[in-house]
Specification:
The complex is a heterodimer of chains A (about 375) and B (about 600).
Chain A: E1 5-10, E2 12-13, E3 25-26, H1 32-43, E4 50-59, H2 66-77, E5 81-93, H3 100-108, E6 113-119, H4 123-128, H5 135-147, E7 151-158, H6 165-178, E8 182-187, H7 195-201, H8 210-226, E9 230-233, E10 236-238, H9 245-251, E11 257-259, E12 264-266, E13 270-274, H10 278-287, E14 292-297, H11 300-312, E15 318-319, H12 320-327, H13 331-344, E16 348-350, E17 354-357, H14 359-363, H15 369-373
Parallel strand pairs in A: 1-4, 1-11, 2-3, 4-5, 5-6, 6-7, 7-8
Antiparallel strand pairs in A: 8-10, 9-10, 12-13, 13-14, 15-17, 16-17
Helix pairs in contact in A: 1-2, 1-10, 2-3, 6-8
Chain B: E1 8-15, H1 21-31, H2 49-54, E2 61-69, E3 72-80, H3 88-95, E4 100-106, H4 113-124, E5 128-134, H5 143-154, E6 162-163, H6 172-182, E7 195-204, E8 208-217, E9 219-221, E10 225-228, E11 233-236, E12 239-243, E13 247-250, E14 252-254, E15 258-262, E16 276-278, E17 298-304, H7 310-323, E18 328-334, E19 338-345, H8 348-361, E20 366-368, E21 372-373, E22 375-379, E23 384-387, E24 399-414, H9 418-427, E25 431-439, E26 442-450, H10 451-465, E27 471-481, E28 484-491, E29 494-495, E30 501-504, H11 508-522, E31 530-536, E32 539-546, H12 561-577, E33 579-582, E34 585-588
Parallel strand pairs in B: 1-3, 1-4, 4-5, 5-6
Antiparallel strand pairs in B: 2-3, 7-8, 7-16, 8-15, 9-14, 10-11, 10-16, 12-13, 12-15, 17-19, 17-20, 17-21, 18-19, 22-23, 22-24, 24-26, 24-27, 25-26, 28-29, 28-30, 28-31, 31-32, 33-34
Helix pairs in contact in B: 7-8
Classes of the chains: A alpha/beta (about 375), B alpha+beta (about 600).
Chain lengths: ~375, ~600
């Protein structure tokens, strides 16, 4: 199989933010050396080096490795993961880590994009989100990256505890002012087991009212579209030509490789996820034991149904012809009646060739998937 | 040689629930040596699992004991009876086979509602009453006061009351002697033409129908041909015998005896409770009076929660009905719930038991609609129809008179609770009849109440206002006209037939408000706003709105996120399967019981 995409999970953080449920360790930099050994070992699965169109280092906080750590990691990765021409290489970064030395190292390693965890440009909201940086750090980091010619993908969070629609408006203005090539906007999700979630259960913090949250999200869509960004997936906005090609590979259901704790790979039919505990993953990899956790093995039909879900989360929606070619199923055989219902309810538009969700449909889309994944 | 009637005694034990009936029965079995002590399971006679679990007797049982009194050997047949108000019908069936009844009263609880009801049932059938005061060894026993209560309420001479403790084995011998001396022997003629009464039956997977009989006249032999008069069928007696308490075969049974018949009957429907057994041909005896057919007081719809289980549900109901003739079912269909059955029960406890047995024994997942009583409607055409489903109520223009069942309800309560009971019954549109004092501290209040009010929550309310000390019992007086209406519930503008109820017009506003409010809590938000309305005809009397979901979208869907999210979506899908879709609204199963919410908080 010709795999053109790879994901590497770097699980280190300075501290765990209260809303985060990702695979990571905070304050365990002592594990970094063993992590490198384990990554090297896991990479040995790859017999012939891959020629990648996209490589994505996510976390955790990959930038927490620092310039030297980043160079070490890329040194290891490059033994098996080669870049094809025009390869998109993305690294997630905390604004505080984006120093001149880091930017230099990133550029040297072939990094073309940085996903910048800015989250907000307002000090109060950043504190509410349990972040350790200040608005000025975001501005400085973006500026440094731009000067070095690295594309910036700014992450923003909205519907933070205590945030008002006016606060979101101000954040959006500031974000647009940074004129990054790409913006991701995430409504705060109260994941089970996080510190935020337990505080909410105790009544110490309150989630933003759903109607307000929707208004915030719609403001974000409107403002960013007005500023020339294309709203190409539920949470993602790009200036023309700057969509994240790596993420698009996920949504096209193309196969990809993945390395590191909690990382998920996909071979076209089965998605398997590495053990989500950092230490367990390291121990097992180094011991030569099985380090995978969940396996989501799908039939062709299940894979096709999943393709509908991720396809419809994109603004372009699903084109019937390419869908048939890629999945082997007629879209309407799988979910013709559901689509008909959505169109009638104003949740989707169907021009006979292409089906896509309306804004209303997109905002309510989780309620649609039970019908698609059925049977 | 058939046994002489003068050596037979047939009796029942009647008591309020929990007064120790089953323990006393166990003790009698043990004392007469019918069952050895080490074999004695608690509640020997209650062999249905549910009965054991709930500590109540549901079906009548019959057991033969032997007892020697003053040098004479007697056959004592104990025909057990259920104690709960729902099973009055079974009680009267058992009593019809007896000449006497042991009336058991708890020495602490005293005379309670079912004590009175069951005692009167026995007295009305001219049975000799052997009164017993039980649990006299309890530290809190108030024997003297309870004797007064028995005298006041049932005109029982306290000198005749046997003082006993079934648990401690006190007074058992006195009781057995009293049964022999005070209960008259049966009056049959063993040489007359065979005449026996079928008083129960159960189904045995190996032997087919086991028919319980009380012989009135004549004798019955193994191998003999017999005829069931009502069904008109002829059978050969393959086996006959008595319960000791297991089946024990014998060669013949004669007048006065109680036992069972096995006639190779595969279909229990051929065995009619109350039918007369006699000989085939022209010389057959005349039919015995038989029983009043059971009166189903409460109806509800039972639907499989997934459509494909309809056949399974039918099989399960059929199986249950075999051993429980008091329960009936008819196929019906509902727009909301699909194909199911309208089921009739003796009361709410009976309904609950049947539903539990269906879920437990047949492993069925059921949707139950709220129970309702039976109504009568006199149509303008002069025709009277019986309504067991609110859906069948005709247009108001066709109704001349709408009648509901009224029950005479006796409450036995400590005197300090008379006020709260008065209030409770007045709120439920009861008609006060009388108060009688059983003792200076205990009173019996009698009201006529609509049965519908009684079944919803009266028992719970009684227990709460009397701190558990009050008891009640009721019997049907008849159907009386009332200002009744059908209250419909609309979800998203569509009438949901399974949610309709019949209620008093004056209660409609309160009930309607309570139901739509309850439904609002039961139905999840959808992508669109859902109007919940209660209406009489076309007039909407209450409304609630479930606001539309405004935002429901996963923010992050990268790499491994999809697998995790899919699990969540799959859960939603499972949840949806367990709901019924009305239009495009998914209604959870338990919402169909929402109509039971009578708006209790709004009334005192």
């Amino acid at each position: 199989m010709n795999i053109r995409h790879a994901y590497v999970h770097v699980p280190f953080c300075r501290h765990r933010c209260g809303y985060c449920d990702f695979t990571l360790v905070a304050g365990r930099d002592d594990l970094v050396e063993r992590y490198f050994s384990a990554i090297e070992r896991e990479l040995s699965r790859v017999e012939t080096p891959l020629h990648l169109d996209t490589l994505y280092l996510g976390g955790g906080t990959p930038s927490h490795l620092g310039p030297r750590g980043l160079r070490r990691l890329f040194g290891i990765l490059r033994t098996r993961l080669a870049s094809a021409a025009q390869c998109e290489v993305t690294v997630e970064a905390n604004p505080l880590d984006v120093t001149d030395a880091f930017v230099e190292a990133a550029a040297d390693c072939g990094v073309t994009r940085v996903s910048l965890g800015g989250q907000s440009l307002d000090a109060t909201t950043l504190r509410a989100l349990d972040r350790d940086h200040a608005p000025v750090d975001v501005v400085a980091a973006a500026e440094r990256l731009r000067q070095r010619g690295i594309v910036v993908n700014l992450d923003l969070m909205i519907a933070a505890p205590g945030q008002s629609v006016a606060d979101v408006d101000r954040d959006l203005e500031a974000a647009v002012g940074l004129s990054s090539e790409h913006v991701s906007v995430y409504c705060l999700t109260w994941e089970k087991g996080t510190a935020f979630d337990s505080q909410r259960r105790k009544g110490l913090v309150a989630a933003v009212d759903e109607t307000v949250e929707r208004a915030m999200f719609e403001r974000a869509i409107d403002r960013l579209e007005a500023a020339g960004y294309e709203h190409y997936e539920v949470s993602n906005f790009a200036r023309p030509g700057f969509r994240c090609r790596h993420n698009e590979a996920y949504w096209d259901c193309r196969p990809w490789e993945a390395f590191g704790p909690g990382a998920a790979r996909f071979d076209g039919r089965t998605r398997s996820t590495n053990h989500r505990s950092v230490t367990a993953w390291i121990d097992r990899v180094l011991a030569g034991a099985d380090f995978t956790g969940d396996r989501d093995a799908m039939t062709d039909e299940q894979a096709a149904r999943e393709r509908i879900v991720v396809g419809l989360r994109r603004r372009d929606g699903i084109d019937r012809g390419p869908f048939l070619d890629a999945s082997g199923f007629e879209l309407d055989t799988l979910s013709g009646s559901a689509i008909g219902g959505w169109v009638a309810a104003g949740l989707a538009i169907d021009d006979g060739r292409r089906v896509r969700l309306t804004r209303e449909g997109m905002l309510l889309s989780d309620g649609l998937w039970a019908d698609v994944l059925g049977a | 040689m058939p046994i002489d009637c003068k050596h037979i005694r047939n009796f029942s034990i009647i008591a309020h629930i929990d007064h120790g009936k089953s323990t006393l029965a166990d003790r009698l079995l043990e004392f007469t040596g019918t069952v050895e002590k080490r074999q004695l399971k608690e509640q020997m006679l209650d062999d249905m699992e549910l009965e054991r679990q709930r500590g109540i007797t549901i079906k009548a049982r019959a057991v033969r004991m032997e007892y020697v009194h003053k040098g004479e050997r007697y056959e004592l047949n104990l025909i057990d009876t259920p104690g709960h108000v729902d099973f009055h019908y079974e009680v009267s069936r058992s009593l019809a086979c007896c000449e006497g009844a042991v009336l058991l009263v708890d020495a602490f609880q005293g005379v309670e509602a079912q004590t009175v009801a069951n005692a009167y049932a026995a007295i009305n059938q001219d049975l000799a009453i052997v009164p017993v005061i039980n649990k006299i060894d309890l530290a809190y026993a108030r024997v003297d006061e309870v004797l007064v209560e028995m005298e006041q309420s049932l005109a029982i001479d306290s000198a005749e009351v046997i003082k006993a403790s079934a648990k401690a084995g006190i007074g058992i011998e006195d009781l057995l002697a009293a049964i022999v001396e005070r209960v008259p022997p049966p009056k049959g003629d063993p040489n007359a033409v065979l005449r026996a009464m079928i008083f129960d039956s159960h189904y045995d997977s190996y032997r087919g129908a086991i028919t319980y009989v009380r012989l009135v006249d004549g004798t019955i032999q193994k191998g003999q041909k017999i005829r069931f008069l009502e069904t008109g069928t002829t059978h050969e007696v393959i086996e006959l015998g008595q319960f000791v308490p297991q089946r024990r075969a014998c060669e013949s049974l004669s007048a006065g005896q109680v036992g069972y018949l096995v006639c190779n009957i595969k279909d229990v429907k051929q065995v009619h409770i109350g039918d007369t057994v006699t000989i085939p041909g022209d010389a057959a005896a005349a039919a015995l009076p038989g029983y009043k057919p059971p009166q189903r007081m409460v109806y509800c719809g039972l639907y499989p929660s997934e459509g494909e289980n309809f056949e399974e549900l039918r099989d399960a109901l059929e199986k249950l009905a075999i051993n429980d003739p008091s329960f009936e079912y008819q196929p019906e269909s509902s727009e909301a719930l699909g194909f199911g059955f309208r089921c009739g029960f003796l009361g709410l406890l009976h309904m609950e038991i049947i539903q539990q047995r269906l879920e437990k024994e047949a492993d069925l997942d059921l949707v139950q609609t709220a129970p309702n009583v039976t109504y009568q409607i006199l149509k303008s055409t002069g025709e009277t129809i019986e309504i067991t489903n609110p859906q069948d109520v005709p247009d108001s223009g066709q109704i001349e008179e709408f009648r509901q069942p009224i029950v005479r309800t006796n409450f036995l309560v400590p005197a300090e609770f008379i006020g709260p009971i008065m209030q409770l019954c007045t709120d439920r549109r009861g008609t006060y009849l009388k108060t009688e004092y059983l003792s200076p501290t205990r009173a019996m209040l009698t009201f006529d109440l609509p049965l519908a009010e009684v079944i919803y929550d009266l028992h719970d309310k009684l227990k709460s206002v009397t701190r558990g000390y009050g008891t009640m019992d009721y019997e049907l007086v008849g159907y009386f006209p009332a200002d009744l209406v059908r209250l419909d519930i609309l979800v998203g503008g569509k009438k949901v037939d399974a949610l309709s109820i019949i209620c008093d017009r004056r209660d409609a506003d309160r009930r309607g408000r309570a139901i739509v409010k309850k439904l609002r809590g039961e139905i999840d938000r959808h992508m669109f706003e859902i109007a919940l309305q209660a209406a009489i005809g076309t007039k909407v009397i209450a409304r609630e709105t479930i606001s539309a979901m405004r935002k429901n979208v996963t923010a992050k869907c990268y790499g491994g996120d999809i697998s995790r999210k899919k699990k969540l979506w799959a859960k939603q899908k499972e949840g949806k399967k367990r709901m019924k879709s009305i239009g495009s609204v998914d209604i959870p199963q338990k919402a169909f019981m929402a109509v039971l919410d009578t708006g209790g908080t709004e009334r005192t």
